[in-house]
């Protein structure tokens, strides 16, 4: 039987960040994942410079062998309305391909990699966790996303939660498709639903295009997606049919699960930590992985639990919750036509964290 001090279930950014932060501790660490990497991952693939800083990634060095699309401008609007363009002097974010990014983080983590092996059974006895009857670990970290098997086996019930539900697709464009695409590589496009309960995006990374839409209210999601894709063609952003989209789900911070016990932690989307305004998951995943490692080493999980407390609700959010839905839509459409709101609130605050 293989034996480890820490077994991390899930090889995404949360799991690999945690493993790398533990690598000089003397602990024996392994990452278990049912997938064989590199693997495709449904994700917009957009990171802020803060992610690179926390992961100690040298951007030019990474970009030599991987996609790292600088982002210097944005188009933002309500679906059906004329967009506002915002331009920055320097790169304020980067586009990545999760297939490359996750594999890179995993390989440099320093952990033993148990890939292509699903978690099928979990048992606690004699002070240890036993996985699949063949792996023993003193400490268990669940990092397997919203449907993480560790979270499920420890009592999380995805059917009773209220996640954000999204559908998206990422695909390579040939010369014909590139000719029918007006989306620029350094300029993601964000289009908000009328009720501000979700948004769609169109994001190009070289020859790769990522298109999707997510909503905190999943009712009528197919209709919202259909309307969004029709709008992209009507507005001339793309002239071709988008391939079938694929779904995924995640919890926003504040709806987090019971994440810490004396011998386990949940991190990343397994814990439910996505950003309240943007739904961003990569930065919270990395932060939770690094904090989990410190908590394990200190055998102190109170700071981890305290970090889960969501920020105070902004005045704008309180106003939005108090207004009838039609009024929210009218106000949002008006505000999203103004440059100051798009730049200072939507981009700098919600998506780029520059006002934090």
Furnish the topology, listing elements before pairings.
Layout: E1 2-9, H1 13-22, E2 29-33, E3 46-47, H2 49-55, H3 59-63, E4 69-71, E5 73-78, E6 84-87, E7 93-95, H4 98-107, E8 112-115, E9 122-125, E10 128-131, E11 135-142, H5 149-153, E12 164-172, H6 175-179, E13 189-192, E14 198-205, E15 208-215, H7 221-234, E16 246-250, E17 264-266, H8 282-298, H9 302-307, H10 315-322, H11 325-335, H12 339-351
Parallel strand pairs: 1-2, 1-11, 2-8, 5-13, 11-17
Antiparallel strand pairs: 3-7, 4-7, 5-6, 9-10, 10-11, 12-15, 12-16, 13-14, 14-15
Explained architecture:
- The chain is of the alpha/beta class and 356 residues long.
- The chain has 2 domains: 2-45 and 97-160 and 251-307, 3-Layer(bba) Sandwich (FAD/NAD(P)-binding domain); 164-250 and 316-351, no CATH class.
- It has helices spanning 13-22, 49-55, 59-63, 98-107, 149-153, 175-179, 221-234, 282-298, 302-307, 315-322, 325-335, 339-351, and strands at 2-9, 29-33, 46-47, 69-71, 73-78, 84-87, 93-95, 112-115, 122-125, 128-131, 135-142, 164-172, 189-192, 198-205, 208-215, 246-250, 264-266.
- The strands form 3 sheets. Strands 1, 2, 8, 9, 10, 11 and 17 form a 7-stranded mixed beta sheet that branches. It has a 7-stranded mixed beta sheet with strand order 6-5-13-14-15-12-16, with helices on both faces.
- The longest helix has 17 residues, at 282-298.
- The mean pLDDT is 91.
